[in-house]
């Protein structure tokens, strides 16, 4: 006798996979590992020339774009700036649906770095 697939199991499989991603998303620590933070802080720090900071962070595999408007600091507080450089690196897949991204925001003070924000969070694709 041939076994037939259980249609309820087949129908539920996509929902289980997607809910697994949301479980991963909610359990991934948003903090940056101390070693990674230390490495980044050695490459970009307040007081260095903005163009050098951007070049240093891009050399680490980050994609940087000039931005203006709102950004969030390390504590999650929203700030606003006329200009800043937003850099993102997506080095790790945490599932077929989600990546873990590291973001660095360089806020200028004149032609120098005034503030550096380093954060990490999951980024799930919603296609």
Which runs of at least 5 residues are low in confidence (pLDDT < 50)? Answer: 7-30
Supply the number of helical segments. Answer: 3
Approximate strand percentage = 35-45%
Biggest sheet, spatial arrangement of strands: 1-2-3-4
Count of distinct structural domains = 1
Description:
The chain is globular. The protein has 127 residues and is α+β, with helices and mostly antiparallel strands. It has a 4-stranded antiparallel sheet, with helices on one face. The longest helix is centred in the N-terminal third of the chain and has 21 residues, at 7-27. Strand 3 and strand 4 (112-124) form a beta hairpin. Helix content is 32%, strand content 40%. It contains 3 helices and 4 strands. It has one domain (7-124). The chain has helices at residues 7-27, 34-43, 50-59; strands spanning 63-72, 78-93, 98-109, 112-124.
